[in-house]
Amino acid sequence: MQFSWKKPSAAGAVVVITGGARGIGAKTAEVFCAAGATVWIGDVDGDVAAATAAGIRNCRSACLDVTDRTSWDGFVAEVLDAQGRIDVLVNNAGVMPLGAFEAEAEATTDLILDVNVRGVLNGMRAVVPTMIDQGAGHIVNVASMAGMIPIPGMVTYNASKFAALGASLAARREYAGAGVTVSAVLPSAVRTELSSGVQLGGGLPTVDPDDVARAILRTLRTRAARTSVPAWVAPGWALVDALVPEFVERAVRSKIDDRRALTAIDTAGRADYLQRLDRQSKAHAVQADSKAVR
To answer: Which part of the chain is the Ketoreductase domain (predicted)?
Structure first.
């Protein structure tokens, strides 16, 4: 089936999803494929991505390090060679270390910024030329409500998601006349491995990966600049930020314990994710050192 931008649906679309091996990315691949798209998932854990893709009809995978332009070039070339075009990019890959900012290792800071910010920029830069050539394309950058709402214990993560949102809004303006649309999706706390070891709920809105996946799919129709999940959070926070005095906000934050990502992390419950982050951080540092030597 040939994809048509005149009928904004996923049917017939060629979709690229980063960080697609697990969580939101894997669920988004399922949702797009069920809607008739052909999906390619890229992930730094290529074996896990391959296993995920094998369980989804019309889904393929390849290893992708979103922080590396060369990796992006190879990935995009493989998709274009097989499919001839890329209609939709979902920049979903992200990492979320938590804890005190002053204790954060430099390697961790580098990983957060390179994956969550550089990864988004690299992805857009990799697909925009082919989208401009074909006269149409849609990019969805998965940011976070942490891109609007500052949260203790997430200083660098907050910085990365504010940046992802800003990049999305700026790119949306820059490519508005080229047929390329850019949307940002901002989930609240999501029940995935990234939030493991942190108490969810208790006054903080929490969603499932399929809620986020469906919101991403809807942007194909709405082309909205910014979509929060749940939908009320972004406009609600905008009102709070504009109208509520800081002392009132502090009182409410204290009541719902907004410092839980700083003071109440269950390290045992987060152990698997922390081990994976540690492996990623070390591998990323080695790669960075290798580039510096060159």
So the answer is: 13-193
Among candidate residues 40, 157, 162, 175, the one labeled active-site is 157
Pairing of strands 38-43, 59-63: parallel
Evaluate whether 171 touches 121 at the Cβ level (below 8 Å): no
Q: How many CA atoms lie within 13 A of 229 on its CB side?
A: 25
Q: How many CB atoms lie within 10 A of CB 226?
A: 18
The domain defined by 14-293 carries CATH number 3.30.56.10: no
253-279 pLDDT, tens per residue?
A: 999 988 988 888 888 999 999 999 989
175 is catalytic: no
Is the pTM higher than 0.85?
yes
Alpha carbons 48 and 280: distance in angstroms, whole number: 14
Give the C-alpha separation, 62 to 42, whole Å. Answer: 5
Is the separation of the CB atoms in 270 and 95 below 8 Å?
no
